[in-house]
Amino acid sequence: MRRAVALLAALLATACGGATAGEPAAVVFAAASLTEPFEALATAFERARPGAQVELHFAGTPQLVLQLREGAAADVFASADPENMRRVVELGRAAGPPRVVARNRLRIAVAPGNPRGVRGLADLARGDLLVALCAPDVPAGRYARRALASAGAQVASVSDEPSVKALVAKVSLGELDAGVVYATDVRAAAGAVEGVAVAAEHDVVAEYPLVVLRGGRSPGGGEAFAAFALSPEGARVLREHGFEVP
Amino acid sequence: MNARRRLAAAAARVPVVLAALLFGLPLLGLLARAPWATFLEQLGSPPVLAALRLSLVCSVAAALGALALGLPLAAWLASGRSPARTAVRVLVLLPMVLPPIVGGVALLLAFGRNGLVGAPLERLLGVSLPFTTAGVVLAETYVATPFLVLAVESGLRSFDARYAEAAATLGASRWRTFRTVTLPMIAPAVRAGLVVAWARALGEFGATITFAGNLQGRTRTLPLAVFNALETRPEAAIVLSVILVGVSALLLFALRDRWFPAP
Question: pLDDT tens digits for B130-139?
Protein backbone atom coordinates (compact mmCIF):
# COMPACT_ATOMS: atom_id res chain seq x y z
CA MET A 1 0.00 0.00 0.00
CA ARG A 2 2.71 2.42 1.03
CA ARG A 3 4.69 1.52 -2.04
CA ALA A 4 1.68 2.22 -4.24
CA VAL A 5 1.32 5.67 -2.67
CA ALA A 6 5.00 6.39 -3.22
CA LEU A 7 4.72 5.30 -6.85
CA LEU A 8 1.67 7.48 -7.35
CA ALA A 9 3.47 10.46 -5.81
CA ALA A 10 6.45 9.90 -8.07
CA LEU A 11 4.19 9.69 -11.13
CA LEU A 12 2.41 12.87 -10.16
CA ALA A 13 5.71 14.65 -9.63
CA THR A 14 6.92 13.73 -13.11
CA ALA A 15 3.58 14.63 -14.63
CA CYS A 16 3.60 18.06 -13.02
CA GLY A 17 7.32 18.78 -13.30
CA GLY A 18 7.75 17.91 -16.96
CA ALA A 19 10.77 16.14 -18.35
CA THR A 20 13.41 18.60 -17.19
CA ALA A 21 13.89 19.70 -13.63
CA GLY A 22 14.90 23.28 -14.54
CA GLU A 23 12.74 26.25 -15.43
CA PRO A 24 9.16 25.58 -16.56
CA ALA A 25 8.55 25.96 -20.30
CA ALA A 26 7.87 29.49 -21.50
CA VAL A 27 4.32 29.66 -22.83
CA VAL A 28 4.05 31.69 -26.05
CA PHE A 29 0.68 32.85 -27.42
CA ALA A 30 1.05 33.79 -31.08
CA ALA A 31 -1.27 34.81 -33.93
CA ALA A 32 -2.20 31.97 -36.30
CA SER A 33 -0.43 33.70 -39.20
CA LEU A 34 2.86 33.38 -37.25
CA THR A 35 2.60 29.58 -37.03
CA GLU A 36 5.46 28.57 -39.34
CA PRO A 37 8.08 31.20 -38.33
CA PHE A 38 7.40 30.83 -34.60
CA GLU A 39 7.74 27.05 -34.77
CA ALA A 40 11.12 27.61 -36.40
CA LEU A 41 11.99 30.28 -33.82
CA ALA A 42 11.17 27.94 -30.93
CA THR A 43 13.32 25.17 -32.40
CA ALA A 44 16.27 27.54 -32.90
CA PHE A 45 15.80 29.00 -29.40
CA GLU A 46 15.76 25.60 -27.71
CA ARG A 47 18.87 24.61 -29.63
CA ALA A 48 20.69 27.82 -28.65
CA ARG A 49 19.75 27.51 -24.97
CA PRO A 50 19.99 23.90 -23.78
CA GLY A 51 17.42 23.21 -21.08
CA ALA A 52 15.11 25.99 -22.20
CA GLN A 53 11.66 24.95 -23.35
CA VAL A 54 8.96 26.77 -25.29
CA GLU A 55 5.30 25.83 -25.45
CA LEU A 56 3.54 27.40 -28.44
CA HIS A 57 -0.17 28.19 -28.69
CA PHE A 58 -1.53 29.45 -32.00
CA ALA A 59 -5.02 30.83 -32.60
CA GLY A 60 -6.75 33.82 -34.13
CA THR A 61 -5.45 36.86 -32.25
CA PRO A 62 -8.84 37.88 -30.78
CA GLN A 63 -9.25 34.38 -29.36
CA LEU A 64 -5.85 34.64 -27.65
CA VAL A 65 -6.88 37.99 -26.18
CA LEU A 66 -10.06 36.37 -24.86
CA GLN A 67 -8.01 33.61 -23.21
CA LEU A 68 -5.64 36.17 -21.67
CA ARG A 69 -8.63 38.11 -20.39
CA GLU A 70 -9.88 34.93 -18.71
CA GLY A 71 -6.51 34.55 -16.98
CA ALA A 72 -4.53 32.17 -19.20
CA ALA A 73 -0.99 31.72 -17.86
CA ALA A 74 1.20 32.80 -20.79
CA ASP A 75 4.63 34.43 -20.80
CA VAL A 76 4.77 36.00 -24.28
CA PHE A 77 2.06 37.34 -26.59
CA ALA A 78 2.58 38.04 -30.29
CA SER A 79 -0.42 39.82 -31.83
CA ALA A 80 -1.42 40.09 -35.49
CA ASP A 81 -2.21 43.77 -35.03
CA PRO A 82 -1.62 46.72 -32.67
CA GLU A 83 -5.35 46.97 -31.76
CA ASN A 84 -5.45 43.57 -30.09
CA MET A 85 -2.10 44.26 -28.44
CA ARG A 86 -3.56 47.45 -26.98
CA ARG A 87 -6.36 45.39 -25.43
CA VAL A 88 -3.84 43.18 -23.66
CA VAL A 89 -1.88 46.20 -22.42
CA GLU A 90 -5.16 47.64 -21.10
CA LEU A 91 -5.78 44.37 -19.23
CA GLY A 92 -2.57 45.08 -17.30
CA ARG A 93 -0.93 41.87 -18.53
CA ALA A 94 2.05 43.50 -20.32
CA ALA A 95 5.32 43.43 -18.38
CA GLY A 96 6.92 46.03 -20.64
CA PRO A 97 6.27 48.01 -23.81
CA PRO A 98 5.29 45.96 -26.91
CA ARG A 99 7.79 45.88 -29.78
CA VAL A 100 7.14 45.17 -33.45
CA VAL A 101 8.66 41.79 -34.29
CA ALA A 102 7.54 41.42 -37.92
CA ARG A 103 5.64 43.08 -40.74
CA ASN A 104 3.42 41.61 -43.43
CA ARG A 105 1.69 42.86 -46.58
CA LEU A 106 -1.53 42.04 -48.39
CA ARG A 107 -1.94 39.90 -51.49
CA ILE A 108 -4.96 38.85 -53.47
CA ALA A 109 -5.05 35.06 -53.45
CA VAL A 110 -6.33 33.58 -56.73
CA ALA A 111 -6.21 30.15 -58.38
CA PRO A 112 -2.81 29.17 -59.84
CA GLY A 113 -2.38 30.78 -63.25
CA ASN A 114 -4.91 33.50 -62.33
CA PRO A 115 -7.59 32.16 -64.75
CA ARG A 116 -10.06 34.96 -63.94
CA GLY A 117 -7.52 37.65 -64.76
CA VAL A 118 -7.53 39.52 -61.45
CA ARG A 119 -5.09 42.45 -61.73
CA GLY A 120 -5.72 44.40 -58.55
CA LEU A 121 -8.11 45.40 -55.78
CA ALA A 122 -10.44 47.28 -58.18
CA ASP A 123 -11.13 44.01 -60.04
CA LEU A 124 -12.58 42.48 -56.88
CA ALA A 125 -15.68 44.63 -57.35
CA ARG A 126 -16.44 42.80 -60.61
CA GLY A 127 -19.82 41.11 -60.53
CA ASP A 128 -18.58 37.90 -62.13
CA LEU A 129 -16.14 37.10 -59.31
CA LEU A 130 -16.90 35.20 -56.13
CA VAL A 131 -14.87 37.03 -53.49
CA ALA A 132 -14.60 36.57 -49.72
CA LEU A 133 -12.71 38.38 -46.98
CA CYS A 134 -11.86 37.54 -43.40
CA ALA A 135 -14.40 38.70 -40.82
CA PRO A 136 -14.03 42.38 -39.86
CA ASP A 137 -12.95 41.31 -36.36
CA VAL A 138 -10.02 39.33 -37.74
CA PRO A 139 -7.00 41.60 -38.37
CA ALA A 140 -6.64 40.38 -41.97
CA GLY A 141 -10.32 41.22 -42.58
CA ARG A 142 -9.94 44.71 -41.19
CA TYR A 143 -6.78 45.36 -43.24
CA ALA A 144 -8.47 44.04 -46.41
CA ARG A 145 -11.44 46.37 -45.93
CA ARG A 146 -9.13 49.30 -45.30
CA ALA A 147 -7.19 48.57 -48.51
CA LEU A 148 -10.40 48.10 -50.55
CA ALA A 149 -11.80 51.38 -49.24
CA SER A 150 -8.56 53.09 -50.17
CA ALA A 151 -8.85 51.67 -53.70
CA GLY A 152 -12.51 52.69 -53.88
CA ALA A 153 -13.60 49.10 -54.59
CA GLN A 154 -17.08 48.11 -53.39
CA VAL A 155 -16.74 44.39 -52.69
CA ALA A 156 -19.60 42.14 -51.59
CA SER A 157 -17.86 39.44 -49.56
CA VAL A 158 -19.87 36.21 -49.88
CA SER A 159 -18.56 35.00 -46.52
CA ASP A 160 -16.77 36.46 -43.50
CA GLU A 161 -14.11 33.81 -43.06
CA PRO A 162 -12.80 33.08 -39.54
CA SER A 163 -9.11 33.09 -40.47
CA VAL A 164 -6.78 33.74 -43.39
CA LYS A 165 -5.95 30.05 -43.46
CA ALA A 166 -9.62 29.15 -44.02
CA LEU A 167 -9.86 31.78 -46.75
CA VAL A 168 -6.73 30.50 -48.54
CA ALA A 169 -8.12 26.95 -48.35
CA LYS A 170 -11.37 27.94 -50.09
CA VAL A 171 -9.51 29.78 -52.84
CA SER A 172 -7.22 26.79 -53.34
CA LEU A 173 -10.26 24.48 -53.56
CA GLY A 174 -11.68 26.73 -56.28
CA GLU A 175 -14.80 27.63 -54.26
CA LEU A 176 -13.81 31.28 -54.32
CA ASP A 177 -12.29 33.24 -57.17
CA ALA A 178 -10.32 35.56 -54.94
CA GLY A 179 -9.65 36.53 -51.33
CA VAL A 180 -7.48 39.16 -49.68
CA VAL A 181 -4.84 37.52 -47.49
CA TYR A 182 -1.27 38.10 -46.31
CA ALA A 183 1.76 37.74 -48.57
CA THR A 184 3.11 35.07 -46.19
CA ASP A 185 -0.07 32.97 -46.58
CA VAL A 186 0.38 32.82 -50.34
CA ARG A 187 3.97 31.76 -49.77
CA ALA A 188 2.98 29.13 -47.17
CA ALA A 189 0.34 27.71 -49.56
CA ALA A 190 3.26 26.58 -51.75
CA GLY A 191 1.68 26.89 -55.18
CA ALA A 192 -1.90 25.99 -54.23
CA VAL A 193 -2.80 29.66 -54.76
CA GLU A 194 -1.18 32.50 -56.61
CA GLY A 195 -0.72 35.99 -55.17
CA VAL A 196 -1.69 39.14 -57.04
CA ALA A 197 0.10 42.22 -55.71
CA VAL A 198 -1.83 45.07 -54.13
CA ALA A 199 -0.82 48.48 -55.47
CA ALA A 200 1.61 50.11 -53.03
CA GLU A 201 -0.61 53.15 -52.46
CA HIS A 202 -3.48 50.96 -51.18
CA ASP A 203 -1.43 48.27 -49.45
CA VAL A 204 -1.56 48.00 -45.69
CA VAL A 205 1.53 47.18 -43.68
CA ALA A 206 0.43 44.72 -41.03
CA GLU A 207 2.51 45.01 -37.86
CA TYR A 208 2.98 42.16 -35.38
CA PRO A 209 3.76 43.51 -31.91
CA LEU A 210 5.21 41.20 -29.27
CA VAL A 211 5.26 41.63 -25.50
CA VAL A 212 6.42 39.79 -22.39
CA LEU A 213 3.48 39.08 -20.12
CA ARG A 214 2.88 39.31 -16.41
CA GLY A 215 1.19 36.39 -14.68
CA GLY A 216 2.92 33.55 -16.53
CA ARG A 217 4.85 30.69 -14.96
CA SER A 218 8.18 31.37 -16.60
CA PRO A 219 8.80 35.13 -16.78
CA GLY A 220 12.55 34.53 -17.25
CA GLY A 221 11.95 32.10 -20.11
CA GLY A 222 9.46 34.52 -21.68
CA GLU A 223 11.97 37.35 -21.47
CA ALA A 224 14.66 35.18 -23.09
CA PHE A 225 12.38 34.03 -25.92
CA ALA A 226 11.22 37.58 -26.65
CA ALA A 227 14.83 38.76 -26.79
CA PHE A 228 15.64 35.90 -29.16
CA ALA A 229 12.70 36.69 -31.46
CA LEU A 230 13.82 40.32 -31.66
CA SER A 231 17.52 39.44 -32.20
CA PRO A 232 19.23 39.32 -35.63
CA GLU A 233 18.99 35.53 -35.44
CA GLY A 234 15.21 35.77 -34.92
CA ALA A 235 14.93 38.30 -37.74
CA ARG A 236 16.65 35.86 -40.09
CA VAL A 237 14.08 33.14 -39.30
CA LEU A 238 11.17 35.54 -39.83
CA ARG A 239 12.59 36.77 -43.14
CA GLU A 240 13.00 33.18 -44.29
CA HIS A 241 9.23 32.81 -43.93
CA GLY A 242 8.43 35.87 -45.99
CA PHE A 243 7.96 38.44 -43.22
CA GLU A 244 9.56 41.84 -43.21
CA VAL A 245 11.56 42.76 -40.15
CA PRO A 246 11.91 46.21 -38.60
CA MET B 1 -25.56 -2.94 8.55
CA ASN B 2 -28.08 -0.20 8.04
CA ALA B 3 -25.39 2.48 8.26
CA ARG B 4 -23.33 0.60 5.74
CA ARG B 5 -26.19 0.43 3.31
CA ARG B 6 -26.81 4.14 3.71
CA LEU B 7 -23.14 4.77 3.03
CA ALA B 8 -23.34 2.70 -0.14
CA ALA B 9 -26.42 4.60 -1.23
CA ALA B 10 -24.63 7.90 -0.62
CA ALA B 11 -21.58 6.68 -2.53
CA ALA B 12 -23.79 5.79 -5.49
CA ARG B 13 -25.02 9.37 -5.54
CA VAL B 14 -21.51 10.78 -6.01
CA PRO B 15 -21.34 10.16 -9.77
CA VAL B 16 -24.86 11.54 -10.11
CA VAL B 17 -23.85 14.77 -8.41
CA LEU B 18 -20.62 14.95 -10.43
CA ALA B 19 -22.56 14.49 -13.67
CA ALA B 20 -25.04 17.17 -12.66
CA LEU B 21 -22.14 19.52 -11.91
CA LEU B 22 -20.51 18.73 -15.24
CA PHE B 23 -23.63 19.80 -17.10
CA GLY B 24 -24.81 22.45 -14.68
CA LEU B 25 -21.64 24.45 -14.03
CA PRO B 26 -20.94 25.63 -17.60
CA LEU B 27 -24.56 26.75 -17.85
CA LEU B 28 -24.27 28.60 -14.53
CA GLY B 29 -21.07 30.22 -15.80
CA LEU B 30 -22.93 31.54 -18.83
CA LEU B 31 -25.86 32.80 -16.79
CA ALA B 32 -23.62 34.43 -14.19
CA ARG B 33 -21.73 36.41 -16.81
CA ALA B 34 -24.69 37.35 -19.02
CA PRO B 35 -25.22 41.12 -19.24
CA TRP B 36 -28.83 41.02 -18.06
CA ALA B 37 -29.22 44.80 -18.04
CA THR B 38 -28.80 45.04 -21.80
CA PHE B 39 -30.13 41.58 -22.59
CA LEU B 40 -33.41 42.61 -24.25
CA GLU B 41 -31.71 45.33 -26.24
CA GLN B 42 -29.14 42.83 -27.54
CA LEU B 43 -31.84 40.26 -28.25
CA GLY B 44 -33.70 42.77 -30.44
CA SER B 45 -30.67 43.84 -32.44
CA PRO B 46 -30.83 43.05 -36.18
CA PRO B 47 -27.77 40.73 -36.29
CA VAL B 48 -29.14 38.63 -33.41
CA LEU B 49 -32.64 38.45 -34.89
CA ALA B 50 -31.23 37.54 -38.30
CA ALA B 51 -29.15 34.72 -36.80
CA LEU B 52 -32.08 33.45 -34.72
CA ARG B 53 -34.46 33.41 -37.69
CA LEU B 54 -31.91 31.72 -39.93
CA SER B 55 -31.09 29.12 -37.29
CA LEU B 56 -34.74 28.20 -36.75
CA VAL B 57 -35.55 27.99 -40.47
CA CYS B 58 -32.46 25.95 -41.34
CA SER B 59 -32.59 23.56 -38.39
CA VAL B 60 -36.29 22.79 -38.94
CA ALA B 61 -35.67 22.27 -42.66
CA ALA B 62 -32.71 20.01 -41.83
CA ALA B 63 -34.76 18.00 -39.31
CA LEU B 64 -37.50 17.48 -41.92
CA GLY B 65 -34.85 16.54 -44.47
CA ALA B 66 -33.42 14.05 -41.99
CA LEU B 67 -36.90 12.59 -41.54
CA ALA B 68 -37.58 12.34 -45.28
CA LEU B 69 -34.25 10.65 -45.97
CA GLY B 70 -33.66 8.88 -42.67
CA LEU B 71 -36.99 7.12 -42.15
CA PRO B 72 -36.95 5.08 -45.41
CA LEU B 73 -33.25 4.43 -44.93
CA ALA B 74 -33.71 3.16 -41.38
CA ALA B 75 -36.63 0.97 -42.53
CA TRP B 76 -34.41 -0.62 -45.16
CA LEU B 77 -31.49 -1.05 -42.76
CA ALA B 78 -33.74 -2.74 -40.19
CA SER B 79 -35.39 -5.03 -42.73
CA GLY B 80 -32.63 -7.63 -42.72
CA ARG B 81 -28.92 -8.33 -42.58
CA SER B 82 -26.58 -8.10 -45.55
CA PRO B 83 -23.11 -6.81 -46.40
CA ALA B 84 -24.72 -3.96 -48.35
CA ARG B 85 -26.66 -2.87 -45.28
CA THR B 86 -23.54 -3.01 -43.14
CA ALA B 87 -21.63 -0.90 -45.65
CA VAL B 88 -24.41 1.68 -45.93
CA ARG B 89 -24.75 1.84 -42.15
CA VAL B 90 -21.06 2.64 -41.76
CA LEU B 91 -21.40 5.31 -44.45
CA VAL B 92 -24.42 6.89 -42.79
CA LEU B 93 -22.94 6.90 -39.29
CA LEU B 94 -19.61 8.33 -40.41
CA PRO B 95 -20.72 11.99 -40.04
CA MET B 96 -21.30 11.30 -36.34
CA VAL B 97 -17.65 10.51 -35.69
CA LEU B 98 -16.00 12.79 -38.26
CA PRO B 99 -15.05 16.24 -37.01
CA PRO B 100 -17.75 18.42 -38.61
CA ILE B 101 -15.07 20.52 -40.30
CA VAL B 102 -13.97 17.39 -42.20
CA GLY B 103 -17.59 16.88 -43.16
CA GLY B 104 -17.63 20.45 -44.45
CA VAL B 105 -14.55 19.87 -46.60
CA ALA B 106 -16.04 16.61 -47.91
CA LEU B 107 -19.26 18.45 -48.80
CA LEU B 108 -17.20 21.05 -50.67
CA LEU B 109 -15.41 18.33 -52.61
CA ALA B 110 -18.77 16.81 -53.57
CA PHE B 111 -21.11 19.80 -53.92
CA GLY B 112 -18.65 22.67 -54.38
CA ARG B 113 -18.08 24.50 -57.62
CA ASN B 114 -15.37 22.02 -58.60
CA GLY B 115 -17.05 19.11 -56.82
CA LEU B 116 -18.10 15.76 -58.21
CA VAL B 117 -21.77 16.77 -58.31
CA GLY B 118 -21.40 20.50 -57.80
CA ALA B 119 -19.54 21.15 -61.04
CA PRO B 120 -22.16 19.59 -63.39
CA LEU B 121 -24.92 21.07 -61.24
CA GLU B 122 -23.60 24.56 -61.80
CA ARG B 123 -22.88 24.00 -65.49
CA LEU B 124 -26.28 22.50 -66.31
CA LEU B 125 -28.63 24.27 -63.91
CA GLY B 126 -26.62 27.26 -62.74
CA VAL B 127 -27.12 26.10 -59.15
CA SER B 128 -24.31 26.59 -56.67
CA LEU B 129 -24.71 25.50 -53.05
CA PRO B 130 -21.68 26.85 -51.15
CA PHE B 131 -22.25 30.24 -49.51
CA THR B 132 -26.06 29.88 -49.72
CA THR B 133 -28.83 29.21 -47.19
CA ALA B 134 -29.56 25.97 -49.04
CA GLY B 135 -25.94 25.06 -48.36
CA VAL B 136 -26.54 25.55 -44.62
CA VAL B 137 -29.54 23.21 -44.78
CA LEU B 138 -27.48 20.62 -46.68
CA ALA B 139 -24.62 20.79 -44.15
CA GLU B 140 -27.03 20.50 -41.21
CA THR B 141 -28.94 17.63 -42.82
CA TYR B 142 -25.65 15.84 -43.42
CA VAL B 143 -24.65 15.93 -39.76
CA ALA B 144 -28.16 15.46 -38.30
CA THR B 145 -29.58 12.55 -40.32
CA PRO B 146 -27.41 9.82 -38.73
CA PHE B 147 -28.97 10.55 -35.34
CA LEU B 148 -32.45 9.95 -36.72
CA VAL B 149 -31.40 6.81 -38.59
CA LEU B 150 -29.81 5.37 -35.46
CA ALA B 151 -32.88 6.04 -33.30
CA VAL B 152 -35.40 4.75 -35.83
CA GLU B 153 -33.44 1.66 -36.73
CA SER B 154 -33.04 0.59 -33.12
CA GLY B 155 -36.77 1.26 -32.64
CA LEU B 156 -37.58 -0.94 -35.61
CA ARG B 157 -35.28 -3.73 -34.50
CA SER B 158 -36.98 -3.97 -31.13
CA PHE B 159 -40.40 -3.89 -32.78
CA ASP B 160 -42.17 -7.23 -32.83
CA ALA B 161 -42.42 -8.11 -36.52
CA ARG B 162 -45.34 -10.46 -35.87
CA TYR B 163 -47.70 -7.47 -35.74
CA ALA B 164 -46.68 -6.51 -39.26
CA GLU B 165 -46.96 -10.14 -40.37
CA ALA B 166 -50.45 -10.34 -38.92
CA ALA B 167 -51.47 -7.24 -40.86
CA ALA B 168 -49.96 -8.69 -44.03
CA THR B 169 -51.86 -11.97 -43.64
CA LEU B 170 -55.03 -9.92 -43.32
CA GLY B 171 -54.30 -8.55 -46.76
CA ALA B 172 -52.71 -5.17 -46.00
CA SER B 173 -50.16 -3.92 -48.50
CA ARG B 174 -46.57 -3.34 -47.34
CA TRP B 175 -47.04 0.43 -47.36
CA ARG B 176 -50.34 0.18 -45.50
CA THR B 177 -48.81 -2.15 -42.92
CA PHE B 178 -45.93 0.24 -42.40
CA ARG B 179 -48.19 3.28 -42.13
CA THR B 180 -50.93 1.86 -39.94
CA VAL B 181 -49.12 -0.75 -37.82
CA THR B 182 -45.37 -0.27 -37.72
CA LEU B 183 -45.14 3.52 -37.71
CA PRO B 184 -47.55 4.12 -34.80
CA MET B 185 -45.68 1.52 -32.74
CA ILE B 186 -42.26 3.00 -33.35
CA ALA B 187 -43.50 6.61 -33.09
CA PRO B 188 -41.60 7.30 -29.84
CA ALA B 189 -38.33 6.30 -31.52
CA VAL B 190 -39.09 8.46 -34.57
CA ARG B 191 -39.93 11.47 -32.40
CA ALA B 192 -36.83 11.03 -30.26
CA GLY B 193 -34.71 10.73 -33.39
CA LEU B 194 -36.34 13.83 -34.86
CA VAL B 195 -35.68 15.89 -31.74
CA VAL B 196 -32.05 14.82 -31.50
CA ALA B 197 -31.52 15.48 -35.22
CA TRP B 198 -33.09 18.91 -34.89
CA ALA B 199 -30.98 19.72 -31.82
CA ARG B 200 -27.82 18.62 -33.63
CA ALA B 201 -28.74 20.79 -36.62
CA LEU B 202 -29.40 23.81 -34.38
CA GLY B 203 -25.97 23.55 -32.81
CA GLU B 204 -24.12 22.77 -36.05
CA PHE B 205 -20.99 24.85 -36.58
CA GLY B 206 -18.01 23.22 -38.30
CA ALA B 207 -19.58 21.85 -41.47
CA THR B 208 -21.68 25.01 -41.89
CA ILE B 209 -18.83 27.52 -41.70
CA THR B 210 -16.66 25.34 -43.92
CA PHE B 211 -19.25 24.55 -46.58
CA ALA B 212 -21.70 27.45 -46.45
CA GLY B 213 -19.47 30.25 -45.17
CA ASN B 214 -20.44 33.00 -42.78
CA LEU B 215 -22.62 35.88 -43.97
CA GLN B 216 -25.24 37.68 -41.90
CA GLY B 217 -28.80 36.89 -42.92
CA ARG B 218 -27.73 34.23 -45.40
CA THR B 219 -25.51 31.67 -43.72
CA ARG B 220 -24.63 33.07 -40.27
CA THR B 221 -26.63 30.86 -37.90
CA LEU B 222 -26.58 31.32 -34.11
CA PRO B 223 -23.48 29.18 -33.49
CA LEU B 224 -21.59 31.12 -36.17
CA ALA B 225 -22.77 34.40 -34.71
CA VAL B 226 -21.49 33.28 -31.29
CA PHE B 227 -18.13 32.49 -32.83
CA ASN B 228 -18.04 35.85 -34.60
CA ALA B 229 -18.91 37.81 -31.49
CA LEU B 230 -16.82 35.81 -29.03
CA GLU B 231 -13.54 37.32 -30.07
CA THR B 232 -14.30 41.01 -29.82
CA ARG B 233 -17.70 41.32 -28.16
CA PRO B 234 -17.79 38.60 -25.48
CA GLU B 235 -20.96 40.07 -23.94
CA ALA B 236 -22.82 39.71 -27.23
CA ALA B 237 -21.50 36.16 -27.55
CA ILE B 238 -22.82 35.31 -24.08
CA VAL B 239 -26.23 36.78 -24.97
CA LEU B 240 -26.34 34.69 -28.15
CA SER B 241 -25.28 31.58 -26.23
CA VAL B 242 -27.99 32.13 -23.62
CA ILE B 243 -30.54 32.50 -26.43
CA LEU B 244 -29.32 29.28 -28.05
CA VAL B 245 -29.51 27.46 -24.72
CA GLY B 246 -32.91 28.99 -23.97
CA VAL B 247 -34.49 28.08 -27.31
CA SER B 248 -33.18 24.52 -27.15
CA ALA B 249 -34.18 24.00 -23.52
CA LEU B 250 -37.64 25.44 -24.13
CA LEU B 251 -38.36 23.12 -27.03
CA LEU B 252 -36.96 20.04 -25.31
CA PHE B 253 -38.99 20.93 -22.22
CA ALA B 254 -42.18 21.49 -24.19
CA LEU B 255 -41.79 18.10 -25.84
CA ARG B 256 -40.80 16.24 -22.66
CA ASP B 257 -43.98 14.25 -22.01
CA ARG B 258 -45.23 13.73 -25.50
CA TRP B 259 -41.87 12.89 -26.99
CA PHE B 260 -40.05 11.24 -24.15
CA PRO B 261 -42.84 9.50 -22.22
CA ALA B 262 -41.93 8.13 -18.84
CA PRO B 263 -41.66 4.33 -19.12
Answer: 999 999 999 9
Looking at domain A20-103+207-240, does it have CATH number 3.40.190.10?
yes
Give the Cβ contact number of residue B200 at 10 Å: 23
Query: Which chain A residue has the Cα nearest residue B130?
Result: A175
pLDDT digits 0-9 by tens, B154-163: 999 888 778 8
Question: Does B213 sit within 8 Å of A132, measured CB to CB?
Answer: yes
Chain B CA closest to residue A170: B210
Question: Is it true that domain A106-197 has CATH number 2.60.40.10?
Answer: no
A63 CB neighbours in chain B (<8 A) are 230-231
Q: Does domain B53-259 have CATH number 1.10.3720.10?
A: yes
With an 8 Å Cβ cutoff, is B214 touching chain A?
yes
Nearest alpha-carbon partner for B132 in B113, B146, B156: B113
Inter-chain CB proximity A166 and B231 less than 8 Å: no
- Give the model's pLDDT for residue B175: 84
Beta-bridge partners for A99: A210
The pLDDT value given to residue A61: 86
- Residues A193 and A214: their CA atoms lie apart, in Å, by 40
Question: Is B100 touching A (CB cutoff 8 A)?
Answer: no
Burial A190-204 (b: 16+ CB within 10 A, else e): eeebbbbebeeebbb
Residue B184 has pLDDT above 50, yes or no: yes
What does the longest C-alpha to C-alpha distance in chain A come to? Answer: 76
pLDDT of residue A14: 43
Sorted by where each begins, the domain ranges of chain A are 20-103+207-240, 106-197
Cβ–Cβ contact B112 with A under 8 A: yes
What is the radius of gyration, based on Cα positions, of chain A? 21
pLDDT of residue A152: 94
Residues of A in contact with B216 (CB under 8 A): 160
Rounded to an integer, what distance in angstroms lies between the CA atom of residue B188 and that of residue B181?
Answer: 14
CA distance A93 to chain B (A): 18
**Residue B163 has what pLDDT?**
83
Shortest CA gap B106–chain A (Å): 11
A vs B, Cβ pairs < 8 A, gives: 58
Are B227 and A65 within 8 A, CB to CB? no
Most A CBs within 10 Å: which of B136, B231, B241, as the mutation test of the A interface? B231
Query: Cβ atoms within 10 A of the Cβ of A228, count?
Result: 20
How confident is the model over A213-227, as pLDDT tens digits?
998 989 899 999 999
Pairing of strands A131-134, A178-182: parallel
pLDDT of residue B40: 86
Please give the radius of gyration of chain B, using alpha carbons only, rounded to the nearest integer.
22
Residue B107 has pLDDT above 60, yes or no: yes
pLDDT score of A20: 46
